[in-house]
Amino acid sequence: MAQVVVSEFMNEDALAPLRSLYTVLFDPTLVDDRERLLAELGEAEAIIVRNRTQVDVEMLAAAPKLKAVGRLGVGLDNIDLEACRDSGVAVHPATGANALAVAEYVIASLFLLFRGAYQSGDRMLDGSWPRADLQGREISDKSLALIGLGGIARLVAERASALGMRVSAVDPFLPADDPVWSSVDRFESVDEVMAGADAVSVHVPLTDDTRHILNAESLALLAPDAVVVNTARGGIVDESALVDAMRMGHVAGAALDVFEGEPLTAAGGEMFAGLDNMVLTPHIAGLTAESNSRVSDVTVANVLQTLSSK
Question: How confident is the model over 298-307, as a mean pLDDT?
Fold first, then answer.
C-alpha cells in the first residue's frame, strides 16, 4: 500500500521528490469515494488534500501511521486540527502560494461587475446591438471595503489602489500601528467599513463569528449599485440575503467563487437563476497554472520535510 496518498488534483510532476523515496498513490477521484480512500490509508504516512477531503477522526483512525497532512491551499476548515494535534499529525497549508491568483481574481471580478457588459454575446449573435443597455461604470474612484486584511487582501488593496480605488478595511486582529494602515483606511467594525462602500470583498476564514457576517443588514449599508465578491469561504456571505438584495436592485452584481454547499448543485443554484451581472465559479479563484505549480511544490516540500524528520 502507498505511503503517500494524494486524494485531489495537483501538479503531478511536483510529486517526483516524494516518489523517489516513497510509494505514492496519486488518485484525484479518491475524494469522491470515501470508503475506498479510507481503505488506502492503512500504510499511509502522509496524505495530500485540497478543500474537499475531510481529514477527521474517522480518517485518522484509518491511517494509524499518518505523520503529515499536506493542504493544497490555505483554508483548514476541512481538517480537524485538534484531532491531528492529538494524534501527532503535522498539518501543512501552502501559505501564500496561491495568494496572487486570488487577488487577481478579485480585481478581475471588480472589472467585470462594474462594467457589466461581458455577457452580451448571445444578444449580439441574435442580431442585437445593445449599446444603450450596456453602459458600465469605471472602478476608478470607487470605494472598496475589505473584510479582513491578511496577505491576500493586502495584494488586493495594492492593486485596487493602483487602479484609483479608495480602499478601506476592518481587521480586529491587526494592530492599529501596522504599517499597512498607512495606505488603507482602518475601521473598527464590519458595519462601519461597509457603510457607503461601492464594493466589498471578503478575506476572512469561516468561523462561528464570521458566518453570515455579510447579511441583509450589512448589505443594506452598501452604496446603491454596490458589488460583492467572495473568494474566502461559503457561508460568510448569506446567499439568500445577497439574492434578495440583488433582486431588489440594491446590489448590482456579485462574484461568488465559494458557496454554502459545495459543490454547488443544480438545486442549490436555483436561487441564482435569472440574476444578471453575476459571476459563479467552482472554487477556482486560487487556481491558475502558476499557482497550482507553486502550491504543489510547497506542499510536497512541507510533507517531505516532516517525513524525513520523523
Answer: 97
Residues 113 and 242 in one domain: yes
What's the pLDDT band for 310 if we cut at 50, 70, 90? Answer: low
Give yes or no: residues 106 and 89 share one domain: no
234-244: pLDDT as tens digits: 999 999 999 99
Contact 276, 52 (CB under 8 A): no
Judge if 35 and 58 occupy the same domain: yes
Place 122 in a pLDDT band, splitting at 50, 70 and 90.
Answer: confident
In a domain, 205, yes or no: yes
Same domain for 270 and 201? yes
Task: Using alpha carbons, select from 210, 180, 197, 269 the residue that is nearest to residue 75.
Answer: 210
Res. 75: pLDDT tops 90: no
Active site residues: 233, 262, 283
Could you report the per-residue pLDDT of 48-68, keeping only the tens digit for each? 999 999 999 999 999 999 999
- CATH label of the domain that carries residue 73: 3.40.50.720
Q: Which domain holds residue 228?
A: 99-280
Structural domains of the chain, count? 2
Write out the H or E segment, with its range, that includes residue 227: strand 226-230
Task: Report if pTM > 0.85.
Answer: yes
Residue 164 Ramachandran class (φ > 0 left, ψ -120 to 50 alpha, else beta): left
Residue 234 is assigned to a structural domain of this protein:
yes
Report if residue 222 sits inside a domain. Answer: yes
C-alpha cell at 18: 516524494
Q: How long, in residues, is the chain?
A: 310
Residue with the three cell numbers 454596490: 226
